[in-house]
Design brief:
- The complex is a heterotrimer.
- Chain A is of the alpha/beta class.
- Helices cover about 40% and strands about 15% of the residues of chain A.
- In chain A, a hairpin with a 5-residue loop joins strand 15 and strand 16.
- The N and C termini of chain A lie far apart (about 65 Å).
- Chain B is α+β, with helices and mostly antiparallel strands.
- Chain B is about 40% helix and about 15% strand.
- The longest helix of chain B has 20 residues.
- Chain C folds into 2 domains: about 60 residues; about 80 residues, Glutaredoxin (3-Layer(aba) Sandwich), CATH 3.40.30.
- The radius of gyration of chain C is 18 Å and the shape is elongated.
- Classes of the chains: A alpha/beta, B alpha+beta, C alpha+beta.
- Chains B and C meet through helix 2 of B and loops of C.
- Strand 7 of chain A pairs parallel with strand 5 of chain B, so a sheet runs across the interface.
- The structure holds flavin mononucleotide, iron/sulfur cluster (SF4) (2 copies) and FE2/S2 (inorganic) cluster (FES).
Chain lengths: ~600, ~130, ~160
């Protein structure tokens, strides 16, 4: 049925086009026609392959051979050698720096190996609303294996050996957590899946639940077997309707298939799962607050100890784990703890999913082995900074994390390293900032978030963060003093030391890290009353230069709040009281008549 | 209809796997798999009309040998909606920024004729366990 | 507020839901979710009713309603415009979109227009960060919104 027996894929991404990929595609097409193979071989231009540095790229299917840095003149050889005689053109194959071997199959290339999917293994490939698809990719085999072949103790040993650490932010070893819950004797125990995902700009957990809900259900049942619990809750944000919908379907199908409920697989083990809805409070992601919320109370954190493993939901031993943590469990059991601990860095095993967003070209979800460098994620996988701008900083760990500057781009990512450079692994949000972002304003953004989300139970967080926010607001309005900068540092330190829960204990991180790495920018706001990135609207205004303005009305037409007045061919004027400083007029003016001061 | 033992689960898996293998070797009709990314971001970017358009096109062309699957997030949020076409035994092809019209074109050209659609293919740069 | 037949029916729907619960322990938040789904918001009257149903002090119910941002104590407009203020949207210009929207409708985030047609809310991440900045109207997502596009989006909803 298929008329073509071979396809030549030519990357037509921006980077490759800049290096003549269009000419290359034309030449290939011409060569194919000359060889009389127009009906058998198709030349296809594609979108970016994310390997622009080595472009132009040609991929040959079905052979799966990958050529790099191909010149238009190479077209003839590719067609005469590879297409006609089936002999790959050796000199165009990729060579990994520092290695001698040329690599033919793109799957073998280290660049493509940068991403390894364990937690996301099924996302985007199986139908999440059909349990049979999950079963066909070894779904529920891990549960079957532990129930029939392993004692709970052996399972705990296996989990500890794998080195898996919590993906919800703290990085606590999962095996140890399960063990603690297992050791505590009780008539009733609970497993809770934390799907609150409060970090704004992060969507890893949502993607797992939407793409592979059964893997989380299976892992919760496994945790139940390890700890002696028979009841599980998934605490999920009400803002995730699709994830909820798919979870409901998945739970129903699993029950019907006898993979949840009484006497699973005839082993006598019973476990069932219920969904509980969050109601829009970030602090409910904190495990003690989450437990109170499931109990139907205000989601306020309480002091630890006692830890949930001793006294959690309804005062029973409870084990709280993150969605991504759970998604890692079935492959660990099926492939063995040695396999898992062979991936990653010394203290952080396995992979981490990051939601890469902000000013980066390839916004999306990436799953990478621990120990990879930030630079590799942002520039190789992420395709670099949007619109050719300059990288400024990357924010990890959300409102609890910090901003990492260019000098630390080569830090290998793991829990300890990120904390050392003033940020945090967090749940996996990764926001890339470029030269147009004002670091003071970014810090203020996070503080505003914390102020909104502080539960108000303890004073350092409730009042302290408000003060931090006020000072930052002052600075962005050009009313700050050097004394304010000292106060920020001191107060930030006090809040970190005295707040009750993780929210307050980490909330000053965005301010402190930006002050550490971008001190000059703070000084510019305070001393020169200037925002170097041109973001803080109180510190800038847009003016029409009367000499350059020819009265074309372009600016007047684009202004979203209609605050530019002027007639055709007359000089235009901006009403400063109404201007929201969006900069649209400056972009619209072809005569450089609008300036930002 | 509950599964009563691990052995039963294993044989169900093997049966489902062979179903897929039969599909893969082309012995039964349904052998091409088209996967549309339908997570929140995909849907927000318009994946639903793409899915319906593709199913509709396949029906109009009376193509019986293709299964359409809605799936989760493939991670390529920058190029949503995404569509993956898998021919048995061949490297899967991933399309990005697919519109309803482009979806129809993929069915007409790629699924029906085995011809790749120009300008829409994107890379799929990761490994899966 | 006088209870007309319509609200009477709504109360009965809520009663039936509570009666169907296997257990009332810890059910408060679930009941409030249901109540908001039925009534659209949670006025004092509804909160008191829930307190009686679950045999809880009214202060408890109010404490929970005011704690969670998902619960609204004021009626919302016919169309709720959510501007995503998550980090990904923020760094791609969501602030400007919000300002423009506020200027357009003459209200601030959290408020409703006097004619009851529109409410503006600032939301944290709707999970479509790849399309940032994102605006959601009645659940429909608009991605990569540019300054100047907002008014045409609103117009779509004015005509209906
Ligand atoms: C303010 C705050 C918010 C949190 N939000 C989340 C969250 O959204 N999702 C999550 O899994 N863990 C969150 N955590 C971490 C949880 O308290 C807990 O450590 C985690 O769910 C444990 O699971 P893990 O060991 O699998 O990581 C948060 C912690 C704090 C202090
Ligand atoms: S640190 Fe903040 S969020 Fe945590 S208990 Fe104190 S007030 Fe509440
Ligand atoms: S900056 Fe924006 S709001 Fe101000 S005058 Fe220009 S277009 Fe109008
Ligand atoms: S930050 Fe706006 S959708 Fe995620």
């Amino acid at each position: 049925m298929s008329t073509y027996r071979m396809h030549l894929l030519v990357c037509g991404g921006t980077g490759c086009q800049a290096s003549d990929s269009r000419q290359l595609a034309d030449n290939l097409q011409a060569q194919v026609l000359m060889a009389g193979m127009g009906k058998e071989v198709q030349v296809v231009t594609t979108g970016c392959f994310g390997f622009c540095e080595k472009g132009p790229i040609v991929k040959v299917l079905p052979d799966n051979i990958f050529y790099v840095e191909v010149k238009p003149a190479d077209a003839e050889e590719i067609v005469s050698e590879h297409v006609l005689k089936g002999r790959p053109v050796n000199r165009l194959l990729y060579v990994e720096p520092g290695m001698k071997e040329r690599i033919a199959e793109h799957r073998e290339m280290p660049f493509y190996k940068k991403q390894l999917r364990i937690a996301l293994r099924n996302c985007g490939f199986i139908d999440p609303e059909d349990i049979n698809e999950y079963i066909s990719v070894d779904g529920y085999q891990a549960l079957g294996k532990v129930l029939t072949e392993m004692t709970p103790d052996a399972l705990l040993v296996l989990m500890k050996k794998s080195g898996l650490r919590g993906r919800g932010g703290g990085g606590f070893p999962t095996g140890l957590k399960w063990e603690a819950a297992a050791r505590n004797k009780s008539d009733k125990k609970y497993i809770i899946c934390n799907a609150d995902e409060g970090d704004p700009g992060a969507f890893m957990d949502r993607s797992i639940l939407e793409g592979d809900p059964h893997s989380v259900l299976e892992a919760m049942a496994i945790a139940g077997y390890a700890t002696g619990a028979d009841c599980g809750y998934i605490y999920i944000r009400a803002e995730y309707p699709l994830a909820i919908h798919r979870l409901v379907i998945a739970i129903g199908q699993a029950r019907q298939a006898g993979l949840l409920g009484e006497n699973i697989l005839g082993t006598g083990f019973s476990f069932d799962i219920e969904i509980k809805y969050g109601a829009g409070a970030f602090v409910c992601g904190e495990e003690t607050a989450l437990i109170h919320s499931i109990e139907g109370e205000r989601g306020e954190p309480t002091n630890k100890p006692p830890f949930p493993a001793e006294s959690g939901l309804w005062e029973k031993p409870t084990c709280v784990n993150n969605v991504e943590t759970f998604a890692n469990v079935p492959p660990i059991i099926l492939n063995g703890p040695e396999w898992f601990s062979s991936i990653g860095s010394e203290k952080s095993k396995g992979t981490k999913v990051f939601a890469l967003a902000g000013k980066v070209n390839n916004v999306g979800l990436v799953e990478v082995p621990m120990g990879i460098k930030l630079r590799e994620i942002i520039f190789d996988i992420g395709g670099g900074i949007k619109d050719g701008k300059k990288f400024k900083s990357v924010q990890t760990g959300g409102p609890s994390g910090g901003c990492i500057p260019a000098e630390h781009l080569d830090t290998p990512i793991d829990y300890e390293n990120l904390t050392r450079i003033g940020s945090m692994m967090g749940s996996g949000g990764m926001i890339v900032l470029d030269e147009d972002d004002c670091m003071v304003n970014v810090a203020k953004f996070y503080l505003e978030f914390t102020c909104d989300e502080s539960c108000g139970k303890c004073t350092p967080c409730r009042v302290g963060n408000k003060r931090l926010h006020e000072i930052l607001t002052r600075i962005t309005e050009g009313k700050g003093t050097m004394k304010d900068l000292d106060n920020l540092k001191e107060l930030g330190g006090i809040i970190k030391d005295t707040a009750l829960c993780g929210l307050g204990q980490t909330s000053p991180n965005p301010v402190l890290s930006t002050m550490k790495y971008f001190w000059d920018e703070y000084v510019a706001h305070v001393v020169d009353k200037r925002c170097p990135a041109g973001v803080c609207t109180a510190l800038l205004s847009y003016y029409v230069l009367p000499d350059n303005c020819i009265g074309c009305t372009a600016c007047r037409r684009v202004c979203p709040v209609s605050c530019i007045s002027g007639e055709v061919k007359k000089v235009h004027e901006i009403d400063q009281t109404k201007c929201i400083k969006c900069g649209a007029c400056q972009k619209a003016c072809k005569f450089g008549a609008i300036v930002r001061k | 209809m509950g599964i009563k033992s691990l052995d039963e689960l294993k044989s169900l898996r093997d049966k489902l796997k062979t179903d897929i293998n039969i599909r893969a070797s082309g012995e039964i009709d349904s052998n091409i798999r088209v996967v549309v990314g339908m997570a929140t971001c995909g849907i927000a970017a318009g994946a639903r009309p793409v899915f319906t358009a593709m199913v509709d096109e396949a029906r109009m062309l009376e193509l019986g040998n293709v299964t359409f699957v809605q799936s989760g997030c493939m991670g390529a949020c920058h190029s949503e909606p995404t569509v993956e076409v898998r021919f048995p035994g061949l490297e899967p092809i991933l399309y990005g920024n697919v519109t309803a019209e482009a979806g129809r074109e993929i069915v007409r050209r790629h699924v029906r004729n085995g011809e790749l659609v120009q300008n829409l293919i994107i890379g799929r740069p990761f490994e899966t366990v | 507020m006088c209870k007309n037949a319509l609200t009477e029916e709504k109360f009965r729907e809520l009663d039936a839901y509570v009666a169907s619960l296997p257990e009332r322990k810890g059910a408060l938040i679930a009941v409030l979710h249901k109540a908001q789904e039925i009534f659209g918001y949670l006025p004092e009257e509804v909160q008191l009713h829930v307190a009686r149903l679950l045999d809880l002090p009214a202060a408890n119910v109010y404490g929970v309603v005011s704690f969670y941002s998902f619960f609204a104590e004021e009626p919302r407009g016919d169309h709720v415009i959510n501007v995503c203020m998550g980090t990904a949207c923020f760094v791609r210009g969501a602030e400007i979109i919000l300002k423009e929207l506020e200027a357009d409708l003459g209200i601030k985030a959290g408020q409703t227009t006097p004619d009851g047609l529109f409410s503006i809310d600032a939301l944290r991440c709707v999970g479509a960060c790849g399309l940032a900045p994102v605006v959601m109207v009645d659940g429909k997502v608009y991605g990569r919104v540019k300054p100047g596009e907002i008014s045409s989006i609103i117009k779509e909803f004015m005509e209906v």
